[in-house]
Amino acid sequence: MYMLHRDESKQPDTNFQGVSKYCVIEQYFNGGAKKMEPHYRPQILSGALCEINYNFIGQTETYGEDIKVVLEQFQISNIMWLLNEARKYRKPNEKAHLTSSTYLQHWKTVDIWMIDLLKEIYADDFEMFNYPLSPF
């Protein structure tokens, strides 16, 4: 069991570790996984992943390929034209410059106790979506 205390008079750190601590761990301790803000809540709690017989689950990491599969399932023709049209309205991705090595650098700033706790909080998600427990 981990105990956290944050001085309410101070703003939370906005580095990767600070955001992880404030947005995930503190919310988890203050109300459990079900009370966490939906963006940070374990995905297994965010829908009926086990009750619905999905025929497709896309992942952020493979979005470009996944959207093509979805469009094909709906028998949308001229997929490349549609994707090109959609790109015209897309806002710039400020994270597009991030690489795998940048991602790993962020994780190196996180204390090991916090990594272990994040693994515990999201264990079912890691298993369900076949994510590695130690990407770093």
Characterise this structure.
The protein has 136 residues and is mostly helical. Helix content is 46%, strand content 0%. The protein has helices spanning 16-31, 63-73, 79-89, 100-107, 112-121, 123-128. GO terms for molecular function: sulfotransferase activity. Its main location: Golgi.
Question: Can you tag this structure with a few keywords?
Answer:
136 residues, mainly alpha, 6 helices, disordered N terminus, carbohydrate metabolism, transferase, transmembrane
Mean residue pLDDT: 78
Task: Provide a count of the helices.
Answer: 6
- Estimate percent helicity: 40-55%
Computed structural class: mainly alpha
Number of domains: 1
Beta-strand residue percentage = under 5%
Element order: H for helix, E for strand:
HHHHHH
Shape: globular
Give the N-to-C terminal Cα separation: 24 Å
- Would you report the number of β strands? 0
- Low-confidence stretches are 1-6
Q: Compute the gyration radius: what is it?
A: 18 Å
The main β sheet shows up as: none
